[in-house]
């Protein structure tokens, strides 16, 4: 803040001396005009109390002249002539420049900063208006949103999304998984598993008698479909109601029959004594 006290005293002192000079000159001029004297002539009258107008004017002029060295009100002694001269460059006028913040009539004071948006920073520009919001985060603090379908995310104090809390369901909508006999299950919009669709008639590796011989069975394949009849584990043959046989002996004219135990008979029966006599 400027200190205007000393320049003001200089200015008032100078103005007082100027007024004194003008008043003294005017008084002398009146005295000479009224007394009828010529320029350079000395006014007469030895009595200082002489009531003539000319003498009074001269005394008034002398009295006014005494103002040169008189103090100016309570501003202190007037400085000497050289120091009393007011330098125009040093004297602030009525329109002296105020600090920057006093000049602003806009939104803010230049250089000031404030928080904005999603944990961002905004700076006041030289034209007293806020600049753009910079360095913002992902979200507004404490905001929430859904995630993974039915989960919830909360924005942290640093404007970043937190972990997904999947408390709203058991799956993500649209996700699939295997189910049942080669079927497929799809997660619904409500984050719950839907019905199992596209299943086969059997589970992989399952067995059944079906239309097979007593010694055989059907096995469900990897595509959850029943395969053909196949011997049960440990069986050597299909019984086929005692009609299942196979050739035996060196000349292959003998026969072995499948027994009810699902095993081939050990005896090789034949209707001929030699291989050449087989019917």
Write the layout of secondary structure elements.
Blueprint: H1 5-35, H2 53-65, H3 81-84, H4 100-103, E1 113-116, E2 120-123, E3 144-147, E4 151-154, E5 176-179, E6 183-187, E7 193-197, E8 207-208, E9 216-220, E10 226-231, E11 245-248, E12 254-257
Antiparallel strand pairs: 1-2, 3-4, 5-6, 6-7, 8-9, 9-10, 11-12
Brief description of this entry?
With 279 residues, this protein is an alpha+beta fold. It has 4 helices and 12 strands, in the order ααααββββββββββββ. Helix 1 (5-35) packs antiparallel against helix 2.
Task: Write up this protein.
The protein contains four helices and twelve strands, in the order H-H-H-H-E-E-E-E-E-E-E-E-E-E-E-E. Residues about 1-10, about 35-55 and about 60-100 have low confidence and may be disordered. Among the domains are: about 5-85, no CATH class; about 240-275, no CATH class. Helix 1 (about 5-35) runs antiparallel to helix 2 (about 55-65). Helix content is about 20%, strand content about 20%.
